[in-house]
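Reopening closed ticket. The problem is back. First fold of the pair:
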Amino acid sequence: MRAVVVSRHGGPEALEPRELPEPEPGVGEVLVDLRAAALNRRDTFVRSGVYDFPLPLVPGSDGAGVRRDTGEEVVIRSNIGWGDREDVPAPGNTTLGGPGPGTYAEVIAVPAENLYPKPDRLSWEETASLPVAGGTAFRALFARGRLEAGETVLVLGAGSGVSTFAVQLAAAAGARVLITSSSEEKIARARELGANGGVLYTDPGWPDAARELAGGAGVDLVLDSVGSTWDDSLRTLRPGGRVVAFGGTGGTRVEVDLRRFYFAQWSLLGSMGSSPRDFAAFLEAVETAAWRPVIDSVFELEDAAAAHRRLESGEHFGKIALRIV
């Protein structure tokens, strides 16, 4: 089968197209003939060595294709071994594309319990974009963030896969949506998806600007994938507001004013991935939605290195996909 392999850590050039043997399914697993995969920031961490998994490794956590044993068209939930609890995954849970093989390949073996029907109205590339970014956005907004209609949510970083899903999901749920970006163009594009406004995070006063957009009292909920922005995110909140953190693209260390934190009775919540129940509820929302996943660009499987360059440029808006068949 055709696949893309990381055999050494490095830049996009470390992604090597290869011919590999097809995988053998284990107990409880089935083979899926993949039609498309999609990129996530996690893939670049696997490639560069931030996540130091044993090599060689086929990266990729997002995928959709045809279940070989039944012929069903499916999308793959990327979290393996979530377990029975909803609040946190079980010890030993993993994600496709590290440490086990991922979706940058023609065929993958996955647990049957991780397969869900492909939404009929979506293309293969749109479907492949759903698991990581869409599932993460859904869990962060609703299971962890408890977003309700009429509330105001601030989404940091317009243009990422998670943020484009979050804007559309939150708007569809009746929330007021604000975003941050380094670009007025991306703010305008986010407004087309349902955002009510945005601020430039290149302005040091952006937390105050966000509060003003929210009416002065502050926002109810912030989705923060940057990490180093926790203190700024807290400054945008109303008393009793919530921050859901699910990434550290800006750094993994941060300082906050503890007294201000507990005086305001804020909540800081961690989130990661999506449980089976979250993902099923997300797909149900997708099936009945008026919106579609935002696809920035589609590359052929063998051009995965170029796709990674596009992702790391920061110029993309939405998900980047790989066409496999």
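Second fold of the pair, where the issue appears:
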Amino acid sequence: MKPHRFSLEPLNFPTMPASDLVSVAAQASFEFVSFTLNTPAAKVLPVSEVVADRSRRSALKAQMRETGVGLLNIECFNLTPESKVEEFRAGLECGHDLGARSGTAILWENSNRADGLAKYRALCDMAAELGISINLEFFGTCKSMNKLGDALAFVKEAARPNGGLVIDIMHVIRNGSSVEDLRKLDPKLIKMVQLCDGPKSVPPDFAVAEVTANRLYPGEGTFPVRDFVRALPSDAVVGLECPKETLSGKVSPVEQARNMLAAARAVYA
């Protein structure tokens, strides 16, 4: 099985500046990174300073050219009832300037489907002008969008050519879907992928902590990681999202990144 290419996701080191994330990715032999360029649902991922600071952005662009590390994805456009789509433009334009291919949208506790659809469509249209796809992520700790089937129906109803899905194995497994469900999807809708591993189950009160800071590297848990990667489009770039707060201060970020990449590559052996 030919390995996919890999991206180092910002949740692994949530407070790390973008320039340091690129440095870690380069030293660990990742081809891509993703950046937080818009405010997510929780303040777990602070917005990068390069959105507003153009001098730092220019330095970051030069660093990325020098290291060969590309930008895969923009986190995270939050379609709440209060959100204003025009305010997403700064993050999109920054991502475009840095070479982003895609952006992630979430519906964080927005029970108004019509409002969510209108904002998603408007965000997709704005992003299309910049050549960026907008991919909807579902996850169990979100009441408004926590199932693969619901996310698929939403994206299909939105009917935007640059719309798609974020497929994170953590949320697929924890929310009652399966690899077989992925095989039934139109591969063109799978535009962002995230890989990790986990135990068979966790206590309900640990669910948020697992997602944000306590994931396992591929192969360390019980998730069907090999079947999962086999079900992905061959041209997918796989984001490794394996935060381990227990390693903070004990194992360097570079070593953590190397270890998670080695674990992911072993899945393909």
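Update: turned out to be a display glitch only; the data is intact. The chain has ten helices and eight strands. The first helix runs from residue 18 to 27. Please close again.
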